[in-house]
Amino acid sequence: MQSLSNRKKILEQEPMNFWERIYLPAIFKGLAITLRHFFMKKNTIRYPEETREYSKNFRGMHSLKRDELGRERCTACGLCALSCPAEAITMIAAERQKGEENLYREEKYAAVYEINMLRCIFCGLCEEACPKEAIYLDGPHVPPEYLRKDFIYGKDKLVEQPFINLEELSLNK
Amino acid sequence: MEFAFIIEKFILIIVVFVITLVIAMYSTLAERKVAGFMQDRLGPDRAGIFGILQPLCDGGKFFFKEEIIPAGAHRPLFILGPTLAIITACIGSAVIPWGQALTIGDRVVELQVADVNVGILYIFGVVALGVYGIMLGGWASNNKFSLMGAVRAASQSISYELAMGLSIIALLMVTQSLSLKEIVAQQEGFVNWNIWAQPLGFLIFLICAFAETNRVPFDLPECETELVGGYHTEYSSMKLGLYMFSEYINMFVSSALMAAIYFGGYNFPFMYDLGLSANWITIIGVFVFFIKIIAFIFFFMWIRWTLPRFRYDQLMNLGWKMLIPLALANIALTGVFIILKDKFF
Amino acid sequence: MTVFYFVAFLSLFFAVMTIISKNPVHSVLYLVVTFFTFSIHYILLNAQFLAVVNFIIYMGAIMVLFLFVLMLLNMNEDSEPLKSIFVKAMGVIAGMCFIIILAASFKVLQTSPPLEIINPEIGLVGNLGKVLFKEFLLPFEISSILLLTAMVGAVLLGKKDKKKA
Ligand code: SF4
Ligand code: SF4
Question: What is its EC number (chain B) (predicted)?
């Protein structure tokens, strides 16, 4: 066929010479290479004991944040669920009752907040959508489970642990 | 045959059997370790320190897995296949001389199960029988891929048996004996090792040994990329385990054979110059023999993780058009050398 | 002697099984076992070399090839062509003739005097080789030519006919 670009190069394959044809030198070369690798430093990172260094913007498990008084920040606006391309988030909103001000920052809060970790693609759009800075993907990997239902994370797993002792807080008041 | 003799042989058989099985078990681990190390990984190292309990875990897994016999399979032969494979693999080690005689009290204990005067041929026969295990298993599975694997195994083993036999003939011309015990005893010291007399024959034998044990680069009977799993595609649980085990035992036996007939077996350099008693020489000899065997097993694995697999026509070309003529030439050359040596020295 | 009778019984039994089993693969396997018992006979006769060679060549190579071909042919009862009554009748007549000849041969049967093994080493390779290359050199070489002819013939048949294809 005529070459259109004129850049075609025809590769000439020379017939193998005697040493190439008996293969043995090539085999020994290969053996030397594998033997060298045998004594090289190993790249294995033995995972649970050692971990690879993660990038700073690694997106792992979600956590629902609390404010500086230990109150949940989420106001159940549903923007995260709306922005989620994988439709992994569902929630049920509830109104804050009298006396719960130390638990929830806003008047409306999420009574149920669930993320299906099997659907989630860890894109981080929920994090970006949240107006209250309530959700961040700053956790580690999602651990494996035996059952699918165990991958639907409720508030018990998502809300971060209060860093201020709540009883102490109420005593101070 | 007195009673003590029977007891002695019985103990020897048990010991050889156990050693064979343990080495085969640890070859499975070593294989994965070597693979790992050559690919800059660590290999399995979770079960016990350095993974030494891994073979036990694997064995346990094999025993407890569900056993499936396909509905269309030929049941008796399906079961006979792996049985035959493991039996033929195990009986091969009977004629290998593990060491010189031990003197315990006034008894002289030979460290060889049976000194058959056609020892080498016995091993050949056993190897030839080994292919039945694969063929029966492959055919009885009632599966195209298995059948193809079986057919490949059969033609491969017959083709390479020829070259192997011819390379052995040249060796026999040098040793003048078919008995393994005598062949090993002749190679005293270091310069008498048969490898110096028969380098070409050893090369041919080595290549054929790879082909006979179905190891890479000749593992076409079980080649995963073309035949799923080859002859053991339909096998599960311990039957599959037996096939794999027989492969490793075959590797062990052929390593032992090569070490014995080409690399002096239990002989080591300066063995009589160190002023040791006969029993100590024997014990060190056994030790040295096992080091040689393990070196060969390592070589098998080393090759496996270095070379790619042959194509089937290349395999046949190599066997029939390269190795057999080479082996014939080797016989002729050996004959000429022997005559020249008789004439002039 | 009891060992001999036992092994002889086994070889006859498996030989019969070879003939009467329906499945060709079974037939071949019984034949393999028959050859194995032959090997044992050789060992009993103190001919280890013959035994091992029988083992390697017959069991290890020839029967593997038989099995090889049978596995590829996939023969079973359905593909068996129905034999006409004529063929069956012929078979019966031929079988009868064979039995008559066998029976007749018993009449001229004599027990030979028990064989004295003069040299117990007679079956070993060295002695065998000497006999073959000294006393029986000519027949030995002729048989090798025969084998060569067969080989050449096989290669010729196996070659593709270039003109037709
Ligand atoms: S990370 Fe992406 S996929 Fe996962 S819950 Fe948030 S928005 Fe949905
Ligand atoms: S996490 Fe943020 S975006 Fe989602 S419902 Fe709560 S406040 Fe709204």
Answer: 7.1.1.-
